[in-house]
Amino acid sequence: MNMTDAWLLPLLPAAAFVALTLLGPWLPRKGDWLAVGAIATVFVMVLLIAADFTDALAAHGEEFAGAANSTQWLEVPGQLELRLGVHVDATTIVMLTVVSFVALMVQVYSLGYMKGDSRYGWYYAVISLFVASMLALVLADNFLLLYFAWELVGVCSYLLIGHYNHLRSAAEAAKKAFITTRLGDVGLLIAIILLWRATGTFNIQEVIAAAEAGEVGREVLTASVVLLFLGAMGKSAQFPFHVWLPDAMEGPTPVSALIHAATMVVAGVYLVTRTLPLFQLVHGGPELILAVGLLTTFMSATMGLVMTDIKKVIAYSTINSLGLMFVALGVGAPAAAMLYLFTHAFFKALLFLGAGSVIHATERQDVSSLGGLWSKMPITCVTFAVGALSMAGLPILAGFWAKDEILVALLDNKAAFALAMATVPLTAMYMARVLILTFFGDPKEPESHEHAHEGSPFIFVPLVLLAVLTVFAGFVAFDQVGELMGFPGGIGEIIFLGHPHAFHFDWNVAIGSSALVLAGLAAGWFAWAARPSVPGVCLSMLRPVHALFANKYYLDDIYQAAIDRVVLSIARLVAWFDRNAVNDTGIDGGGYTAKFAGYLMKFQQTGKMPNYALGMVIGVVALTLVAFTLKG
Amino acid sequence: MEPVAQQIPLEHFLALSAILFSLGVYGVLTRRNAVLILMSVELMLNAASINMVAFAAYASPEKFTGMIFAVFIITIAAAEVGLALAIILRIFRNLGTANVDEVDELKW
For residues B86 and B93, what is the distance between their CA atoms, to the nearest angstrom? Predict the structure, then answer.
């Protein structure tokens, strides 16, 4: 399978979506095998394409930039030519692997987790549509196709967050996620149009080439880069748009794993990785990414520390990770960001699926009603622990290598390095907290603990596979490992975007961050396992700080107030105008005028035949006179 | 014998037709009895027939277009009278009058 055949990839799940939507109710098992089969085929195809890519890389060496294949979509002669196609390079290969593998795991997991759901077929249809759009987003060689796919994944996210549509909270969360990301998407659309006006093309590579050649004005480039970043911020839940992601946990847990951890939310990171040269052309562009990433990663770590919902803790850890990826992009280390994205997909999907296993078994998701589950669910416990420690950044787990790569890249920027280092123990602490409160200690609700049990193989096999990857995926950064796996020049070459020796390892940073991780884990163990009275004491001492974190920095309240005050008052004004001016005067006014005129005129209809006859005669005479007058 | 066209000028026919038509209009507008109104309508129809025949005789004497029209008008007028009388009869049976001023059910 050639790289240029990659356009086939999104078509398979898209076909599955169409088949499931049209025929779902009549297919055996509501057609879930179709969706799973499509994504499994896609995964195999991705592996073949990756093999083709490594061959090409070996043949062409470092200057190999990737393969493109596009076809004319529509043309206005002399005005506009739109081409539609795929572009496969190292970044694409990494994203394709992540998307197809995690999607496969999640769909297999859903066979167990979603069993008996009243909208089972629809769930699989939308998941297939999501995978198709995500693949299209990753493969797109132009901004237009990317934007279509970008919106499509947003729609799928909306549909899946609101999957339990009988819950008001789920419907509200779906709406919030859609509207919040739309705010950023508007920026992205404007940026795409601005860049198109400046360069005359939608092709990403051509736009970058034109900008580097100085064809785009400084103001236009600055504006479009900032607007582009708005889109990325919305999708990747960066401050101040991050508020939708924790609420998105209302959706089914496998959806959280696939869309709100491993794939869709990293679309923003992917977009910025793709367009990073544009940011670097703008004065202050990288600094903007860095600042937003740092702020997000630090704030989300503090909020993760106080959340009690197991899924929300993981959601904040996702925001934390996304912030870290933007930090890496901000200091010009896209390779580090991609390595983190690659490993993060595995351990974060693992964490969510582990949480899903707990929720499936106990029907509880608040840590205050869980606890002591390790004896009931050993597989889930071990795999979740692997994921949590990887997120914390414990050495040799995947998260460690990726995070250290980012920290090393930060070394030149002392303030940013310090802030990133400060979040390391916080992350370790809240991951230890959620791990301890869920699986260790005494069960807080003996009844649900009693019924808890390990799920079906559909549920624990993906957990084990992801855990294995979480342990080993970090090693791909080393060339030797890649060569052992049969990739010429090391698989690291793919992760590092064609710069195989870019993997930095700094013993000082590694030891320092590991010490901080251990300190964070120890603090977590001390506070929530060894001395359970400590959190209470801290809480009484730091009540305002806790309130600040637990209320999410009051951002939701501020937004709500802003919506109430500004949006609703404008809406009220518009509604008043609509009701009075448009409706009452414009529409009803015309109707009433006609009606009144009719009322006045109806009295001409006397019903007496001579009156009508007289009318006719007068009419004929008048017409005759007119005719003679005109004739002259 | 000379054709009638040379003996009497066309204007005389037209004047006759106009007078007849005006009488008919006057009758339709002033009579209140439905049967009399019907008769006035017949006058108007006959005025039209005279016009047809007169013009035909003067404009194209070799053809009979106008005369054929007149025959048609007479036929249709006969049918129309039959229909109209039937309607008037029904109105009289239902409302007890043939006075058109009192027949004003179809109004606002």
Answer: 10
Q: Which residue of A has its CA nearest to B22?
A: A617
What DSSP string runs through chain B?
---HHHHS-HHHHHHHHHHHHHHHHHHHHH--BHHHHHHHHHHHHHHHHHHHHHHHHHH-TT--HHHHHHHHHHHHHHHHHHHHHHHHHHHHHHHS--BTTT---S--
Pairs from A212-217 (Cβ < 8 Å, separation ≥ 24): A212/A277, A212/A281
Task: For residue A164, give the nearest of A359, A384, A396 by alpha carbon.
Answer: A359
**Are the C-beta atoms of A194 and A220 separated by less than 8 Å?**
yes
A119 C-beta neighbours (distance < 10 Å), count:
15
A3-40 per-position pLDDT tens digit: 778 888 899 999 999 998 888 778 877 878 888 899 99
CB contact under 8 A, A607 and B32: no
For residue A414, what pLDDT band results from cuts at 50, 70 and 90?
confident
Most confident of A208-212, A410-414, A449-453, A483-487: A208-212
Is the bond into A277 cis (omega within 30 degrees of 0)? no
pLDDT at A478 over 80: no
Whether pLDDT at A54 is above 80: no
Q: CA–CA separation, A538 vs A198, rounded Å?
A: 56
Tokens coding A442: 């005494």
| Alpha carbons A156 and A13: distance in angstroms, whole number | 13
Q: With CB atoms and an 8 Å threshold, state whether B104 touches A617.
A: no
Q: Which residues contact residue A628 at a Cβ distance below 8 angstroms, ignoring those fewer than 6 apart?
A: none
Residue A484 CA to residue A488 CA, distance in Å, equals 9
Task: Supply the DSSP symbol for A142.
Answer: B
Contact (CB<8Å) B103/A609? yes
A357, A381 Cβ separation under 8 angstroms: no
Measure CB to CB from residue A613 to each of B29, B101, B108 and give the nearest one.
Answer: B29
ipTM of the complex: 0.84
What ranges do the domains of chain B cover? 10-95
Question: CA B66, CA A387: separation in Å to the nearest integer?
Answer: 107
**Encoded amino acid at A33, one letter:** W
Specify the amino acid at residue A2. N
Residue B101 exposed, middle or buried by CB count within 10 Å (0-12, 13-18, 19+): exposed
The top-scoring range by mean pLDDT among A67-81, A116-130, B17-31 is: B17-31
Give the tens place of pLDDT for each residue, A236-249: 999 888 889 888 89
With an 8 Å Cβ cutoff, is A617 touching chain B?
A: yes
Task: Over range A45-50, report the average pLDDT.
Answer: 88
Q: Contacts of residue A624 in chain B, CB cutoff 8 Å?
A: none
A39-49: burial string, b at 16+ Cβ within 10 Å, e else: bbbbbebbeeb
List the structure tokens of A22.
Answer: 């049209």
Q: Is A628 touching B (CB cutoff 8 A)?
A: no
Q: Which residue has the higher pLDDT, A257 or A497?
A: A257
- A72 bridge partner residues: A83
Fold annotation for B10-95: Helix Hairpins (1.10.287)
Closest CA to A150 of A138, A162, A160: A138
In this complex, the residue of A602, A605, A609 whose CB is nearest that of residue B100 is A609
Across the range A310-325, mean pLDDT stands at 91
Residues A287, A306 contacting (CB under 8 angstroms): no
**Residue A439 CB neighbours (<10 A):** 24
Give this prediction's pTM.
0.77
